[in-house]
Write a structure and sequence with these properties.
The structure is a homodimer of 194-residue chains.
Chain A (H helix, E strand, L loop, with lengths): L11 H16 L6 H8 L3 H8 L2 H8 L6 H10 L5 H13 L2 H15 L3 H21 L5 H21 L10 H17 L4
Chain lengths: 194, 194
């Protein structure tokens, strides 16, 4: 037992991340609890919160996500639904075009499409923390469908621009893509889908 | 040397497919020639055309594509640009929702996002035979950007619906998705992108 570790202990953070990866892969996002991950790592649950905040933050660290969805989506959604499509595209491109994001983003795309348990875990996370968060901000009864449509275009943008490198979209500048893709997201969020 | 094989020879078709896979992977789509693949397989180039029609048809067979882009896109594009977005979504869903398409479609998505040379080969094929074919049907000077935007939403739809299984998009019926995604593609094809 390694119980009794403290924030300063070498390797404590890494032990938590490793335990989280294992548990998320085995049980999925929704059924993995902070307290169980803490027990697996031999630490107090408070230490997990100290390092990672929420379960979503721990997941982002465990999967080496190129961004923490809550930190990106939260402020955007708080600014309201007007122009959200364009703001979302601009913010995501700003994050993803940073050189240090490239490798984790491509790795993430591969893990989502891959065979391993990470794919199912990631699906649970995307549904609850990304699509779910967007859906909760929408008043429409079809909010979940709208959120998953947003997801489909965002995923396609990541694949086309960063993974496949589909020309000329892969080299288009931000203004061009915000103008092209922003209205698509806005329509999925608040427009008429018939 | 196996030169002199005839259409009826057992394994001739398979030998051509195997040679095509190897050459496409090594040289990419654009630089692989029918005559070289035929030579690799020890057959006359006419036999390759007899079995597969064009290089695109051979590629579709070699990569076990769930559809032949030319056979799907050709007739759709011939009907004109009016309503093309909705027709495209409906046609693709009709093909991809067939049970026999599922496995090759998911395999295709994985190969495109994967590490192996198939990813680069597939990119060349998508650019020339899918995006290129759409771009040639568009009058606008930004036809290639428009075609790659269509590609991004179509790729995202495949990933969200068939690979990730993002609810509720994964279970939405065709009419619902045609109404939601069709106008997106139509705007990318012919609308105002500013």
């Amino acid at each position: 037992m390694k119980r009794g570790r403290r924030p300063g202990d070498a390797g404590t953070r890494e032990a938590i991340v490793a335990a989280a990866r294992t548990r998320f892969a085995a049980h999925g996002y929704a059924r993995s609890r902070i307290r169980d991950i803490a027990a697996d790592a031999g630490v107090d649950p408070a230490l997990v919160h100290y390092f990672f905040g929420t379960k979503a933050g721990l997941f982002a660290a465990a999967m080496a996500l190129p961004f923490r969805p809550a930190e990106v989506l939260g402020p955007l959604l708080e600014e309201g639904l007007d122009g959200l499509g364009e703001r979302l595209v601009r913010r995501l491109l700003g994050i993803w075009d940073a050189p240090e994001s490239r490798e984790p983003l491509v790795a993430l795309a591969r893990s989502v499409t891959g065979h391993d348990p990470a794919a199912a875990t990631m699906r649970g996370f995307v549904e609850s923390e990304i699509a779910g968060r967007i859906a909760r901000a929408l008043p429409a009864p079809d909010a979940r469908l709208r959120a998953s449509l947003v997801g489909s275009q965002v995923i396609g943008l990541v694949l086309a621009r960063y993974v496949i490198g589909l020309a000329p979209l892969a080299k288009a500048d931000h203004d061009e893509l915000v103008a092209a893709v922003g209205p698509t997201l806005q329509r999925y969020l608040t427009g008429d889908l018939r």
